[in-house]
Specification:
Elements (H helix, E strand, L loop, with lengths): L4 E3 L18 H10 L8 E7 L10 E9 L9 E6 L4 H6 L1 H14 L10 E7 L4 E7 L15 H18 L18 H6 L15 H17 L6 E3 L8 E6 L2 E6 L6 E3 L2 H11 L2 H21 L7 H24 L7 H21 L9
Length: about 375
């Protein structure tokens, strides 16, 4: 594969990569969807760009494309989700690794996984310019859970079962050794963006967590190392309610997931900590935490994972809650909340309350050396 220009679903590159959603033309989209094998001989005559209601991303631009064809054709979607590189050239370069990771995740991980994700109609990546495009199936008609309200127990169990099955499928898999784009957690972009800046954190925190944060400032590298030890699996590393879509198919709840820019190799329990910390209210977590961890461990073992005890899972899970606080501190230190708007700031504040409660409930601070 050409390392400078790699294409996705159709395996064929189509012209240059548009510089954002407003640069998408009917002609370009017509050729793209023909390459994907879904357009036939009809043509797209108009493209309307809509901005989703979800908080804006920090690593890319996301839009919905509403398309019209010159005639009706079965199987042609009325809408697509389009994801593009950031408009700022410097930011584009600094987050290029994340966008390379997502394009390759869809191309190399999803086809060999039981993880439900949107269909990829087209992807293209130029690692020299750090431009990329992903055209994805629009799942917005499926049920979405509000981050602030959080998932209920049934949804939480469905997510945990899906995560465990996905993790088990990649547990200590030899294919990980050849995926140089999927880095161990302590050598990934996450360490650069959500690790090193922690040392500059000077913000205020709720009572009881300030001392933990002070210790983390000098020991954040230890936490990244703990999440990078073998056995490793593919870790999504950004598991939040707003990145999930829920649907019932044949009587079974299916959870489709999106946003894989921060995916890494690491300890699978980190995804569980991410999910519980971001997307379960403290009351739901306290009431169902142990049972959900048992479900996660049971699925792992039923799918052939051995040598990983429930106690080891609980330790990894507790480390993951400290990692959640690391993320918050790094984002705060860089002032990234403001870039996401008022909604994202509100979510961040609620997540901090959840992180704090979990760290105190589980005595996570005792895992820190010294």
């Amino acid at each position: 594969m050409d390392l400078n220009r790699s294409s996705g679903a159709s395996g064929k590159k189509v012209g240059s990569i548009p510089d954002g959603p407003l640069a998408v033309t009917p002609d370009w989209l017509t050729e793209v969807l023909r390459c994907a094998g879904i357009l036939g001989s009809c043509s797209i005559v108009s493209v309307e760009v809509e901005t989703p209601a979800s908080p804006p991303g920090l690593l890319s631009r996301l839009s919905r494309l509403r398309i019209s064809c010159d005639r009706q054709v079965l199987g042609v979607p009325e809408t697509l989700i389009a994801k593009f590189h950031p408009s700022d050239p410097e930011l584009r370069k600094s987050v290029c690794e994340a966008n390379v990771t997502e394009v390759k995740f869809y191309a190399e991980v999803v086809p060999h996984s039981n993880l439900s994700t949107p269909k990829v109609y087209y992807s293209d990546l130029d690692s020299d310019s750090c431009e990329f495009v992903l055209l994805l199936e629009d799942l917005s008609e499926q049920r979405i859970v509000d981050d602030l309200k959080g998932c209920g127990p049934e949804d939480a169990e469905a997510v945990v079962r899906n995560l465990a099955a996905f993790h088990a499928g990649w547990w200590s898999d030899s294919r990980l050794e050849s995926m140089d784009w999927l880095k161990p957690f302590d050598r990934s972009l996450s360490f650069e963006v959500l690790g090193i800046p922690v040392s500059q954190f000077e913000g205020s925190l709720p009572d009881g967590i300030g001392e933990v944060a002070r210790r983390i400032k000098g020991q954040y590298a230890t936490l990244f190392e703990a999440q990078s030890k073998r056995p490793r699996t593919v870790v999504l590393n950004d598991v939040k309610a707003r990145h999930m879509f829920f649907a019932i198919k044949n009587g079974v709840e299916i959870v489709s997931m999106v946003d894989f820019q921060l995916a890494v190799q690491g300890r699978g329990a980190l995804d569980v900590s991410r999910f519980f910390g971001s997307s379960l209210t403290t009351c739901v977590r306290r009431a169902h935490e142990h049972d959900l961890l048992c479900v996660y461990h049971d699925v792992l073992t039923s799918m052939g994972v051995t040598g990983y005890s429930f106690d080891a899972l609980c330790t990894d899970y507790r480390f993951g809650h400290l990692q959640n606080l690391v993320d918050y501190m790094a984002v705060e230190a860089q002032g990234l909340q403001a870039r996401g708007g008022a909604r994202l700031q509100e979510i961040q504040e609620e997540q901090l309350r959840r992180y704090t409660a979990a760290i105190e409930d589980l005595d996570c601070a005792e895992l820190l050396p010294g």
